[in-house]
Structure formats: C-alpha cells, structure tokens
Amino acid sequence: MARDRTPSRRRSRALAASVAALFVGGLALTETPASAASRPKGHDVSSHQKNVDWRKAKSKGARFVYIKATESTTYRNPYFGQQYNGARDVGIIRGAYHFALPNRSSGKAQASHFVRNGGSWSADGWTLPPALDIEYNPYGEKKCYGLSKANMVSWIKSFSDEAKRLTGRRPVIYTTAHWWNTCTGGSRAFASNHALWVARYDSADAGALPAGWSFWTLWQHDNGSGSLPGDQNLYNGSMTQLRKFARGH
User: Fold this and answer.
1) Which of 135, 162, 222, 231 does the annotation list as catalytic?
2) Domain for residue 196, yes or no?
3) Residue 135 falls in the annotated catalytic set
4) Less packed terminus of the chain by CB within 10 Å, N or C?
C-alpha cells in the first residue's frame, strides 16, 4: 500500500480465474471478466504523495483511487481532504482505507476512528466502500502483531461489524495471500461478503488467493513504479460494474 510514515514492505499475489465473480452490493455476480486491457485502472495514495495532481492522474488513465485516511486510532492523513475531494472534483471514483494495527486497540475502536475521519460511504456512485488494509507489521518483528490466529480473525470481524454498522457496507479487505494464510490460519470467514483487494507484484497475474476467496475484485500489481501516483491497481470488471460496485448495487 502507498506509504507515508512506514517502511516499504513486500506482498504476495493472487490469481484471476477465467470466470470472475464480482461483488455488487455485497453479493457475488458471476460473469465473463473484462479483458486485462479494458479493466479500469486505479491507484492508491497516502500522505507520501502529498497534494496529488488529479487532472494529470486522470489524463494518464486513473478511473478510481483509494486514499489512506487513518491508522490505528491516533493518525489521520494530513493530505486526505485534498486527495479525497480532489479526485472527486475531476471525476475519479474514490474511497478511503484504514491501515490496521491490531496490537494497538480493538477492531471496533479503529473502525470508529476511521469512519469519523474519512472512512464513511454513500451510495452516490462516486464513493468506493471503506477498505481495511491488513498486512505485515511495519513497526516490529511480530508480523502478526502478537495476536493468535483466532484473535486476529476476531479483530477483523470486530472492525468489519463496526464499519458495517456505521456505513452500511462491509469493508473491502486488502491483504496478501501469505499474510492472510499465516496470520488468520487461512480463515474462510470473510470471503462470502467481503470484496478482496489482493496485492502481488512482478507477475502477469494475481497468483494464489488468500484462503476462502475464489476471485479478486481489486489487484494491486505494482508498488509505485507505474504511471499513476502511488501503487497501481486494476478493477476486475468493466466501468459499468465499477460504478455499480461503488453504488452498492
């Protein structure tokens, strides 16, 4: 994910099936996927990108963006307003993500902080569902934040339940196959009602998926060397489907 205060880290990746199932309003819609060339391009940014030139990003093909809003319960991206509102002003579909630190406070507390500071959602067709970025600990050696597999699953559920209560939508889950299978024990508890945003680089496809998911909705395929500010992403469908995904239909 796009960095601001934290060091860079590696991620694993996930495979796109020949028939993709796309989340529409929390339900799976199965159909033939768009070709790779026609999939909407997007990116994700944080305070590291500062004041983004959104017109330039759109001219280079950006159709959606996720913007870091918060981390734990103590941090808010100081550039969030310019980034979030600026993307919308030029006609880019945007959403907010939260960087999880499960060893700092409860999932419920972090979801509440997130929603209060930019992580809300509305069915206006321009707002992506809130997203939870959960991956290796960038601040210490305990890659699973010192939580047991069962406690990690409980933490994610607590975050998801509170985000759903406050916004009406389940969060998209951003992760890697390796982290997920290592730190949740390959939990299958979330795949049926959480869209997957999977990270894997330097590959022609998304690779093996985290346990439980049979398809990806978003794929982060490059960590900062592409044409758009921040990390590069694809949406697994058409622009029409992306707009439906944003609206929750």
Assistant:
1) 135
2) yes
3) yes
4) C
